[in-house]
Amino acid sequence: MISRRRLLTNAGHLCLLGAVSPAPALAQSSLIQRTIPKTGERLPVIGLGTYRTFNVGDDPAELEPLRRVTELFFEHGGTVVDSSPGYGPSEAAFGHVVRQIDAPDDLFVATKVRAEGHEEGIRQMEASPERMGVEQIDLMQVHSLADWRTQLPILKERKADGTYRYIGITASREELYEEFIEVMRSEPLDFIQINYSVAERKAEETILPLAMDLGMAVLINRPFVAGALFPHVANQPLPDWASEFDCESWGQFFLKYVVSHPAVTVALQATTSPEHLLDNLQAGQGRMPDEETRQRMVRLIGLTGRPPWT
């Protein structure tokens, strides 16, 4: 299996040989921004996820790469960070990191509640700001619809009293889609978060159009299918026509497919590599593929339905 790091290293060797042009330096604070429909607030289209990558202990050696990645993310215009108590110690790891660096004034912190019962839900929600090193959680989400009939009323109450600015729900599995759509249609959500990629496109059928119709902002998880897309293209060169939408790597290819959908507000990428982080952020700049090109991208990758490797 060839990793993304190997793909980028090979591309760098080709640059030295003159086979391809090196990637341009990332311009600070130049990320494309998208509007939250309910308020008009704008967010950079590339966000920072913490699933797996921030699931570390308190060892400085483990935390240092996360500090550098987060610092670079902020330096280059990123503001949206998403976590969950369901990601082990990820909230606490982010909190440790953010206390060590200069966070932007417009930092947008999203996390989730994944609990059974009213009291456990409250306990989780009240612990998150301290763990994440912030005064307020901007967006609280019900994680994978867990006990949503109990938790969502709490979120609505807390939005009404100003504890949260936005509320939403999340899913990352197709088995939840039917119920997810039901909740979208019946509840006053500000955000949804859903899995979507060039390989996992089920959300295009109903969820993304419905979010547009209902004025809900959209966070995207699994844009790389948890990294599984990179081995799939390991032996394929990036097509020449990718330059038509300012794409210079497979990571940018996958992210630009996601963020070019008109419903998408922010795509969440997660990495411990500064090199990958800067590469991913370039996907939030420049030209985007049009619908005809997006279909060409799908045909090139050649995956339909549920990817067999997940």
Can you give me a brief rundown of this structure?
The chain has 310 residues and is of the alpha/beta class. It has helices spanning 4-17, 60-75, 90-98, 118-132, 148-160, 177-186, 207-214, 229-232, 250-259, 274-282, 291-301, and strands at residues 33-35, 42-44, 46-49, 80-82, 108-113, 139-142, 166-170, 191-195, 217-221, 266-269.
Order of secondary-structure elements: HEEEHEHEHEHEHEHEHHEHH
How many structural units, i.e. domains? 1
Count of DSSP H/I helices = 11
What is the CATH superfamily classification? Answer: NADP-dependent oxidoreductase domain
Structural class: alpha/beta
Unreliable runs? 9-24
| Number of strand elements | 10
The gyration radius over C-alpha positions equals: 19 Å
Overall shape: it is: globular
Any guess at the CATH architecture? Alpha-Beta Barrel
Q: What is the highest CATH level, the class? A: Alpha Beta
Tell me the span between the first and last alpha carbons.
15 Å
Report the biggest beta sheet as strand number plus sense, adding barrel if it closes: 8 strands, parallel, barrel
Instruction: Indicate the proportion of strand residues.
Output: 5-15%
- List the strand order in the largest sheet: 3-4-5-6-7-8-9-10
SSE layout and pairing:
Elements lengths: L3 H14 L15 E3 L6 E3 L1 E4 L10 H16 L4 E3 L7 H9 L9 E6 L4 H15 L6 E4 L5 H13 L5 E5 L6 H10 L4 E5 L11 H8 L2 E5 L7 H4 L17 H10 L6 E4 L4 H9 L8 H11 L9
Parallel strand pairs: 3-4, 3-10, 4-5, 5-6, 6-7, 7-8, 8-9, 9-10
Antiparallel strand pairs: 1-2
Helix pairs in contact: 2-3, 2-10, 3-4, 6-7
Can you give keywords for this protein?
single chain, 310 residues, alpha/beta, TIM Barrel, eight-stranded parallel barrel, two-stranded antiparallel ribbon, 11 helices, 38% helix, globular
